[in-house]
Every structure is written in C-alpha cells, then in structure tokens.
Amino acid sequence: MKKYAIIVAGGSGSRMGGSVPKQFMLLKDKPVLYYSIKTFLETYIDLQVILVLPVEYTDMGQEIIDAYFDKDRIRITAGGDSRFQSVKNGLSLVEEDSVVFVHDGVRCLISSDLIRRCYAMATETGSAVPVVPSKDSIRVLTEDGNEAADRNTIMLVQTPQVFHSKILIPAFQIDYKDKFTDEATVVEAFGLKISLVEGEERNIKITKPVDMLVAEKLLVEGA
Ligand SMILES: Nc1ccn([C@@H]2O[C@H](COP(=O)(O)OP(=O)(O)OP(=O)(O)O)[C@@H](O)[C@H]2O)c(=O)n1
Ligand SMILES: C[C@](O)(CO)[C@H](O)COP(=O)(O)O
User: Fold this and answer.
1) What region does 15 belong to: left with phi over 0, alpha with psi -120 to 50, or beta?
2) What's this model's pTM, rounded to 2 decimal places?
3) Is 36 exposed, middle or buried (0-12, 13-18, 19+ CB in 10 A)?
4) What EC number(s) are associated with this protein in UniProt (predicted)?
C-alpha cells in the first residue's frame, strides 16, 4: 500500500527562540529537518513526503530539498495556526488509500527501526502511536494542591503517529479543540481506540535549547 509521511514543520519554535525556527537550525552542519526527511525516505523507497512549512519559510525548505533529496518524492504545503491545522493541510495532499505517518519535523533522531515498528502495528490494527515510560516520578495538580500518581499508568507520547488514511482523513474533519495535541487525541475523539508501540528514548522532540545540545551529542556518537 502507498505510504505518505506528513512531516510537520510549520511551527515557530517560540520555546526555543533564535533567529530561525528550530527545524532550520543546524546540527552537524545540516538543518534539523534534513535528518527527519532523510530517515523516512531511506526507510521506504515507495514513501512520499509531505512537508508542512511556515509559509514564509517555503523557500528555505525548498533549498533543503534541492540540496539533499529527490524532489519528486517531496511536496511542500503551508502550515496553519495550530499543529492540528498543519496536519490537516498535509492530509489534503494525500491522494489515495494509504498508510499515513505524521511526524514532528523536530524529532530528528527518529530511527528506521521505529518507523518500521509503527508501520507493522498500523497495518495490523489501523493505528500506531509510539510511547516511552516516564523516568521521573509523577504528580497530578488538584484543586487543593497536588498528589502523587503511579508512573506505571503513564506513558509519554512520541511521533510518528501512524494511521490508515481511511481513518485519519475523516477524523480530521472534526472541529478543533485545545486538547488535540497530536493525532491520537483526534482519532480517539473520532471514536477509535489507539494502539501503542514501544517508542525510543533518543527520539526526543527538540523544544528548548538544551535539546539541541543533547541531539548534537547523540548524532555525533551515533548513539
Ligand atoms: N502550527 C504548527 C505548530 C507546530 N508544528 C510542528 O509540530 C511539531 C511539534 O511542535 P512544537 O515542538 O510545539 O513546535 P513549535 O510549535 O514550533 O514550538 P513552540 O510551541 O515552542 O512555539 C514541530 O515540528 C512543529 O514545527 C506545525 O507544523 N504547525
Ligand atoms: C505530538 C507530540 O510530539 C507528542 O508528544 C507533541 O504533543 C507535539 O508538541 P506540542 O508541544 O504539543 O505541540
């Protein structure tokens, strides 16, 4: 079946700061986004990338494609005001029944193993969402303070989140709600159960400056 990877890179990176959004910052002399695109294209030869970018950074994205990739395998579309809207814009370019990976462009340490694991689960059950356990203790905020929670009941969510297009496209017709921080929340609101897959600790989301340091170190060491 046809495979699409919607790589969402339409955000502004406000928590990171800097002169360009974090997806264009350099890690080992290449943009963060380069690594995410490369791993998907290398994992499956029949996969097409849909790259979602802030409209004002379309040219910068095109330069990355021209410099490193086969332009016939990548299409660009404009991001929206929310991650939800950016994914929805990407989905509008999905042309046929397919397996759709949605991946944060800033999770640049994604591995082919994880991509394949998610694909296997999604083709078996219709969905795949990678998660890792919490290394820290957890506390829940309550009306009168806070209380401990059992961390064994909590999992931290990553991307790629993978679904059949027949599920994801209709699910994204729903009206936006603040709780839609990822595809799993949207598909769940659509009434379906989510299948979890073992994620990877190194599949970090570059969010703050410290994450660039960690990613650089992991890339250098190939760890
Ligand atoms: N309107 C948006 C918001 C986010 N994203 C993408 O979703 C991923 C995860 O989002 P996050 O880390 O929150 O990125 P930003 O929104 O850019 O960061 P911040 O919240 O700090 O501004 C990123 O690859 C980001 O580019 C997107 O495509 N469109
Ligand atoms: C989708 C996500 O990566 C799951 O952890 C995450 O929710 C995206 O980041 P945001 O800060 O919620 O936009």
Assistant:
1) alpha
2) 0.97
3) buried
4) 2.7.7.60
Residues with C-beta less than 6 Å from any ligand 1 atom? 8-15, 21, 23, 52, 79-83, 86, 104-106, 205, 207
User: Which range of residues forms the domain containing residue 159?
Assistant: 2-221
Q: What is the CATH number of the domain that holds 12?
A: 3.90.550.10
Quote the number of domains for the chain.
1
Here the tokens at position 213 are 């340091």
CA 105 to ligand 1: nearest atom: 24
> Could you read off the pLDDT of 100-125 as tens digits, one per residue?
999 999 999 999 999 999 999 999 99
For ligand 1, mutation pick of 7, 8, 35, 56 (most atoms within 8 Å of CB):
8
* Bond from prior residue into 160 cis (ω within 30 degrees of 0): yes
Answer whether 165's CB lies under 8 Å from 187's CB: no
